[in-house]
Design goal:
83 residues, alpha+beta, three-stranded antiparallel beta sheet, 2 helices, 3 strands, elongated
Length: 83
C-alpha cells in the first residue's frame, strides 16, 4: 500500500488518462498508443505510431518535469551523504 503525505502534482485521474485518444494530426484519425512515462510511472503518454506525435493531458508535462527535479535532488542528497 502506498501512503502519500502530500501530493503537489495535479495529474488527471487514471481513468481519464486511460481513455482512447485519436491523433489530432493524422487523417484519418487513428487511436494513439498508451506509453508509460520513463520519468514518472503515474503518467501515460499518448503516442501516434503513424506520425510519431506525442500528446500530453493537462498537468502531465509539469508532473514529468517535477519528477525529474525530485529525482535529481534525491540523487544529489545520496551523493552528499556518501562523501
Amino acid at each position: 500500500m502506498n501512503v502519500r503525505l502530500f501530493e503537489w502534482r495535479k495529474l488527471p485521474s487514471e481513468e481519464y488518462q486511460a481513455r482512447a485518444v485519436a491523433c489530432p494530426r493524422c487523417r484519418p484519425r487513428g487511436i494513439m498508443k498508451k506509453v508509460q512515462s520513463e520519468r514518472d510511472r503515474h503518467v501515460l503518454l499518448d503516442v501516434c505510431e503513424r506520425c510519431s506525435g506525442v500528446w500530453l493531458d493537462g498537468g502531465e508535462l509539469r508532473a514529468i518535469q517535477e519528477m525529474g527535479l525530485v529525482v535529481a535532488l534525491s540523487d544529489a542528497v545520496r551523493f552528499i551523504l556518501k562523501t
